[in-house]
Specification:
- The protein has 306 residues and is an alpha/beta fold.
- The chain folds into 2 domains: 7-117 and 186-200 and 271-305, Rossmann fold; 123-181, Histone, subunit A.
- It has 14 helices and 6 strands.
- It has helices at 19-30, 55-60, 77-94, 105-113, 123-136, 138-148, 150-155, 161-174, 178-181, 202-219, 221-228, 243-249, 255-278, 291-305; strands at residues 7-12, 34-36, 63-64, 97-101, 192-198, 284-286.
- Strands 3-2-4-1-5-6 form a 6-stranded parallel sheet, with helices on both faces.
- The protein starts with 6 loop residues before the first strand and ends with a helix.
- The model has no long low-confidence stretch (mean pLDDT 91).
């Protein structure tokens, strides 16, 4: 049963577009708190490479789910869903509005809809599993699937490599058995959701991304990567900004090339984020500079329910 007085405002969009500044500005006006939905920013060690908000920004508005885990801790989208829903029940006792800001579409969808709906695959994880299929053979994947989801293991065609990869992928991506998704149990949230997505001209976004990468290097990204090198095989570090610098530290590429690859791969990541949010027609798109229009839209959605 939806409580007509409670609102979760989602501010989504590609990396570097200006989500944090918009969320803080809106949160100040609405006197509410912010939940981060950026899976890279969960880990306190990834301060520079994950572009965590500065201390100055964090002090302006209370933020949640930033730097609250270490890279050695296991955390997935299922844990995030449960933790956010628990937190929302507490925050809504203080204020009727909470903002969730970030670019991790799967994590946002988990909070809004639950993850009983089948999530899209993760390119990085899919590539890793396909590589394992090639080097270790299908039996290795079968054994792991049996450990994580015996129900699916007993039902699936064990000769169908693609189905085994897909089932195992869902288990690893969400922390839940693949068979659980087949139940398709819809989740009703006890609050209203207002979805906003931000974007700007493509060239402008690419320039912002390139500038951000330069600033990251000035802030000490190379040293941050060096300090994390021993953990390079952890999932938390198999992400843009670190992978390229680990290749540099392994003498596979030059530092200049690593920097250019980070820029290129971040631009590619931004395009994937835009595609993800574009698939959901519940999002209303704005440019970050159109703050008054964003505020008017939020007020109009709230007034609809009054």
């Amino acid at each position: 049963m939806t409580n007509n007085n409670k609102y979760l405002i989602v501010i989504a969009g590609p990396t570097a577009v200006g989500k944090t500044n918009t969320a803080i500005k809106l949160a100040k006006l609405l006197s509410c708190e912010i939940i981060s939905a950026d899976s890279r920013q969960f880990y306190k060690e990834l301060e520079i490479g994950a572009a965590q908000p500065t201390l100055e920004k964090l002090n302006q508005v209370k933020h949640h789910f930033i730097g609250f885990k270490t890279i050695t801790e296991y955390y997935n989208v299922s844990c995030f869903e449960q933790d956010v829903i628990t937190l929302l029940s507490k925050l809504f006792k203080k204020n009727n509005i909470v903002i969730m800001c970030g670019g991790s579409g799967l994590y946002i969808d988990a909070v809004c809809n639950g993850i009983d709906d089948m999530p899209d695959f993760d390119t990085e994880l899919r590539n890793k599993l396909m590589s394992r299929l090639e080097t270790e053979g299908v039996e290795s994947l079968r054994i792991e699937l049996k450990k994580l989801d015996v129900v699916t293991y007993n039902k699936i065609d064990l000769r169908n490599k693609n189905r085994i990869v897909r089932a195992l992928e869902m288990c690893l991506l969400t922390g839940k058995p693949y068979s659980q998704f087949l139940l398709k149990t819809p989740k009703q949230r006890p609050f209203n959701i207002i979805k906003i997505a931000l974007n700007i001209d493509r060239n402008e976004l690419h320039n912002k991304i390139n500038e951000r990468v330069e600033l990251m290097f000035e802030a000490g990204l190379e040293n941050e990567a060096k300090s994390l090198y021993q953990y390079k095989n952890l999932n938390a570090l198999k992400t843009v900004g670190y992978k390229e610098l680990f290749d540099y530290l392994d003498n596979k590429i030059e530092l200049k090339q690593a920097k250019e690859l980070i820029k290129r791969n971040t631009r590619r990541y931004a395009r994937k984020q835009i595609s993800w949010f574009n698939r959901n027609n519940e999002y209303k798109w704005f440019e970050p500079n159109d703050f008054n229009k964003i505020l008017q839209f939020v007020n109009s959605k709230i007034n609809e329910k009054q």
